[in-house]
Amino acid sequence: MGVLLFLVSLLVGLAGGGRCASLAIGVEGTICSQRSERKVKESKHYWSVYSDQLTKGDAKIYHNWAHRIASEKLLYPENVFTAGSKMNLYIDRAAALHSAWLRHDAANSIPMSTKNFTEVIMTFAPMSLAMARDMWSTLSSCEHPREVAGEQKACTMSVQSMHGFAASALGTSELRAFSTSLDVPEEGIGSPSNRYRVAAVRAVTAKAAANTVTCHSMSFPAALFYCHAVNPTRIYEVTLQREKEDSDVTTSKTPPVVRALAVCHVNTSAFDPTLMYWVKLGRKPGEASMCHFLTRGDVLWAPASVA
């Protein structure tokens, strides 16, 4: 069963600590007060090392990866979610599962944009070049135009802002939050050589199709979620069992049983018609739904009246 997430994740985030932990636990002071002590040359170093390798165009991220060509292996037709169906299971890796939440006021004080990238970098410095790349991609994702007509989206860095966006998008503050089971590994699942069989399927939302908000964890030094609503949706909790083959060995890294949440977008009429997904189905956007699994740490919000 999907699990209510926030009390647990908040405690985990606070325990994670880090240079900016004071922002999450309420210690007085400016954001990472150490930044005022950074030398000018350090700022230039972080910026030049990164900007020399990536421009805005190069760093453009396909933020809604469930609907982009680069991740089409993550997409499934809805009819696969029936008991007995078999599939190669792909669930994306968790981006930043252990990042700490910031206080609401601290999160709002960070100038979250690629234009202010140097200042954002120095807020969380020092960091690796790999993290700097991820931060740029995350900021680009947050600034990217809406992927689908009618999509509502926001990047959130505090529990309050995440709940506030979900409440606004769904028209109610009476919400339930769900997350994929912990038996989905943080590194995700990619099983080109391991088939999974659908053992059980349970509808999470009571209505045939309901409005929901999905929040994807993003790679960032602090907790940051890309939240969006592409409605209506159907939500399923799917239990899958790995098929045992003659060559199967007990050292397989793929878990034998997986319970995961699947989101199916019902109205796909405004989706990208160039996706190979439609070619494989022999359909056009609007003629079939499109589904994907949630990664570990992602959060799904639904009105309490339908979940």
UniProtKB/TrEMBL annotation:
UniProt key word Signal: yes
PROSITE patterns given in the database record: BURP
Domain BURP: 75-304
Presence of the UniProt keyword Signal in the record: yes
Domain of life assignment: Eukaryota
SMART domains for the chain: BURP (SM01045)
Pfam families: BURP
Record-given protein name: BURP domain-containing protein
Species whose genome carries this gene: Urochloa decumbens
Lineage: Eukaryota, Viridiplantae, Streptophyta, Embryophyta, Tracheophyta
